[in-house]
What does this fold into?
Amino acid sequence: MITLTSDFGSPYPAAMKGVIRRHTDAELIDVAHDLPRGDPRAAAFWLRFVLPEFPPAVHCAVVDPGVGTDRAALVVRAGAHVVVAPDNGLAMPPARALAAEESDVEAWTVAVDEPASETFHGRDVFAPTAARVRTALDDADESTGDGRVTPSAVADALAAMDDLSPASDPVDVRFPEPSVERDGDDGAGDSTGDVVAVDGEVLAIDRFGNVITNVPGELIRGRDWIRVDGDLTPVAETFGAVDPGERLVTVGSHGYVECDVNDGRGDGAFDLRPGDSVRLVPDSVSL
Amino acid sequence: MITLTSDFGSPYPAAMKGVIRRHTDAELIDVAHDLPRGDPRAAAFWLRFVLPEFPPAVHCAVVDPGVGTDRAALVVRAGAHVVVAPDNGLAMPPARALAAEESDVEAWTVAVDEPASETFHGRDVFAPTAARVRTALDDADESTGDGRVTPSAVADALAAMDDLSPASDPVDVRFPEPSVERDGDDGAGDSTGDVVAVDGEVLAIDRFGNVITNVPGELIRGRDWIRVDGDLTPVAETFGAVDPGERLVTVGSHGYVECDVNDGRGDGAFDLRPGDSVRLVPDSVSL
Amino acid sequence: MITLTSDFGSPYPAAMKGVIRRHTDAELIDVAHDLPRGDPRAAAFWLRFVLPEFPPAVHCAVVDPGVGTDRAALVVRAGAHVVVAPDNGLAMPPARALAAEESDVEAWTVAVDEPASETFHGRDVFAPTAARVRTALDDADESTGDGRVTPSAVADALAAMDDLSPASDPVDVRFPEPSVERDGDDGAGDSTGDVVAVDGEVLAIDRFGNVITNVPGELIRGRDWIRVDGDLTPVAETFGAVDPGERLVTVGSHGYVECDVNDGRGDGAFDLRPGDSVRLVPDSVSL
It folds into this structure.
């Protein structure tokens, strides 16, 4: 299996599929091709969310604002998964999520011949690399004959590929941690008291306009009301708990606090965009 | 084969595919993931139109405004097809269209463990259920060895699944029938005279802005002009019969009367939205 | 393998897939379903770009403003590829790109029974035709037993299909050639001097608003600045060479000169639309 992710829209990903089909009959599954344009950080967020649902696979992910520059092409092993992507940080957060532990992530640089184009490395570099990695893993699979490639077999197969060399310092994206203020905080930040306030950041906006923050859902567990940048907002498990058009705070399927509107757009209602800071203050008001 | 339908946009359906791939290698075919948000009635309309084109398959359809509430999860057998969907009505119209007769539709409720999320049952409930149903059918298929599962074999396979129990009263969507006035109508509505007027309803708007009504195409057969809410409009078999930007009435591939604009949007030109009533009056004007 | 291309949006292509699945288990790959509506010329441009990346396949392409009229349905062989499409020109440019030489392109007309609808020949004519062609090729493949159908085997398989007859004069789209003015031109146009000016045409606009012209990239090789309709614009290999929001001229992955904006839309900034003429004048200014 090869999954495909990009910000290319159509019909560009089909060109990648054609190239792959010249090398291998592996199943192709689209993750998304309408990711925010040229934004490796957003791609890293979504891939970290989606890819761990898959059984071991090769994941070809191309959101590549540096196409045509000398940024490297990476092959990143994460357990028995492999991510093929430009070296701009998008591969590392999903790789950490795919691996059982961080030490089970290793990155390789692809030796790339002069590609056919300066602007479509999805077709000219990443698709053929993903196809060759897939073929190498399938060959390894056949040689062991057990239908499932182990992490060490994947590592061996990659090590045997002539055009891969260990990547010394791949670009990484680390998502910011929210700053949490608790009852009884003495400045050391080690209080286990109730959460008084959280200063978080907007990680992404989804298709529905839901504002996804970096605040873990457990920090608001048991709360009924939260002030979002000062505005009192109900906390609910489901959209249907508030009337259409009304704002709510909920915990999304990724486990993070979202600022949403039932049957509307949270990004507009809360005036929040990716990268914006957002302050969440639990409120004990009872209305 | 498992078909997938939702209002999720991307990349959420890929998470469902990853979950399914942990259970089965069955082929995955996307029907649509950009259906009108949170509108089970629109989903029912489109699925009733599309699913009958398929050979027997498992159809996983998630348009689910009640996610996180206690609405049930359904498995609906329709002949040798199975629809897996929330119990909000969307499954029943396509199930009736898929079954040879209405008595060949039977609904089951899925016993659902506490799902991993309150907001993404597509991933946490419906995808794994579809995968398990698919596996159960494939096992039944293997046991009979004939490559095609019969309706009764599907029924037996579902009855043998521990976590299914008969659904007593699944939510249903029934599309309204238009009201037809004919020459010689005496109020009993049993006249077979010419159609004088039809009071219908807008069922859906497609991507092109075509306004799809609930009026069967045969009611306007042979007519050249129709008043749509009073406005005289030509009837044509093809868009090209009128100039770009001009309005027309035609019969769509689903067999219903559409109010369209050649190379434009019918919903804007006719000022019609889903659920609106629309009056069609054949006119014998010759221009 | 069958590739699918249309301007249908969703969920219409799924109906085509269902129909195909009643005939064959061949792999289905989507090229695009959001091509410019009713524009066979744009479809021809994109298919000419994408389809040659694929190994031999059946390509079902339906952008069909003449649906319901008496335009023919075509099956076009191009080497070992087959394009199934309405006879409106869209098939011929990709067919020439798929064939080793123009003489290896041959067109057939499909004898079509009265289709089920006047408006959805994608489902009622082209999908079943593509499925029958695919099956005929797979049968031919099986009979020779070599896993890859040769152009002559494809030709034989098509010739053996009862419902195909040679197409005498299929509609064709020819993309305009740009007019090139060179140093030392004496009016005969055979100068090999430096390019002084090129009068081209806009062939297409992609999802990002990039303006794709018919001017081959080699005509601007080595230039740093070009006047686009009079406005001085930097030539760059990559978007990142200019600041976000700034205009640039580059050579796209299809080999043609594009007029783009980094992190913005070229069609708006240059005020260019498909079919517009555009004058490119290399400038030796050094800023």
